Amino acid sequence: MKEYGALLPEEKWQAVIQCDSRYDGVFFYGVRTTGIFCRPSCKSKAPVPGNIIFFEHPAEARQLGFRPCKRCCPERTVFQPELELVKKVQEIIGDGYQNRVDVQHISRQLGVSKNHLIKLFKRYYGVTPAQYITSRRVAKAVELLRQGEAGILEVAYAAGFGSLSTFYKCFKERTGYAPGEVRENTDLLATCVTADSCQTVLETS
Ligand SMILES: [Zn+2]
């Protein structure tokens, strides 16, 4: 979920004209000419940029005399089954990436089609579930290598990789180093965080 403070006006404006439901609950917008305020996904006619004002909370809109739109009901608690689903996926990956968790398994577990799940996940997180699983595994491997306790093979399996060749390939792709290099020089990926906080360079692929 986006943080309100991190949004640029341009991003908010784009969300409004694209009726982007990912921003529902993150901000609201009022139209000065009508005195109505909406959630970003509202399908009402696109407003003129100069007439629009953004709010973080419905209460701010109310204070300025705006009334809630009858069409999108901006004050109703935001119901986002999609977001719940992708959060569930992330949770399952977090619990299972060190084992044999894969997208097929997750889609069966949640009773949704694999393609739908991949599409949704990518829309919210910008990467596919498979890429996310790899990121978690690489981050875990970095953590284990830096602790210097296990051998490369043990690290590969403990991080959830099914084979050494996959491990070497993914590790090099994401970090730019071979696992052995990181093991020899633990300062090499000093900026990498642990597997549990995954908003790292490892995410981008
Ligand atoms: Zn509306």
From TrEMBL:
<dbReference type="GO" id="GO:0043565">
    <property type="term" value="F:sequence-specific DNA binding"/>
</dbReference>
<dbReference type="GO" id="GO:0008168">
    <property type="term" value="F:methyltransferase activity"/>
</dbReference>
<keyword id="KW-0227">DNA damage</keyword>
<dbReference type="Pfam" id="PF02805">
    <property type="entry name" value="Ada_Zn_binding"/>
</dbReference>
<dbReference type="InterPro" id="IPR009057">
    <property type="entry name" value="Homeodomain-like_sf"/>
</dbReference>
<dbReference type="GO" id="GO:0006281">
    <property type="term" value="P:DNA repair"/>
</dbReference>
<keyword id="KW-0489">Methyltransferase</keyword>
<keyword id="KW-0804">Transcription</keyword>
<dbReference type="GO" id="GO:0032259">
    <property type="term" value="P:methylation"/>
</dbReference>
<keyword id="KW-0479">Metal-binding</keyword>
<dbReference type="InterPro" id="IPR018062">
    <property type="entry name" value="HTH_AraC-typ_CS"/>
</dbReference>
<keyword id="KW-0808">Transferase</keyword>
<dbReference type="GO" id="GO:0003700">
    <property type="term" value="F:DNA-binding transcription factor activity"/>
</dbReference>
<keyword id="KW-0234">DNA repair</keyword>
<dbReference type="Pfam" id="PF12833">
    <property type="entry name" value="HTH_18"/>
</dbReference>
<keyword id="KW-0805">Transcription regulation</keyword>
<protein>
    <submittedName>
        <fullName>Transcriptional regulator, AraC family</fullName>
    </submittedName>
</protein>
<dbReference type="InterPro" id="IPR035451">
    <property type="entry name" value="Ada-like_dom_sf"/>
</dbReference>
<keyword id="KW-0862">Zinc</keyword>
<dbReference type="InterPro" id="IPR018060">
    <property type="entry name" value="HTH_AraC"/>
</dbReference>
<keyword id="KW-0238">DNA-binding</keyword>
<dbReference type="InterPro" id="IPR004026">
    <property type="entry name" value="Ada_DNA_repair_Zn-bd"/>
</dbReference>
<dbReference type="GO" id="GO:0008270">
    <property type="term" value="F:zinc ion binding"/>
</dbReference>
<keyword id="KW-0010">Activator</keyword>
<dbReference type="InterPro" id="IPR016220">
    <property type="entry name" value="Me-P-triester_DNA_alkyl-Trfase"/>
</dbReference>
<feature type="domain" description="HTH araC/xylS-type">
    <location>
        <begin position="87"/>
        <end position="185"/>
    </location>
</feature>
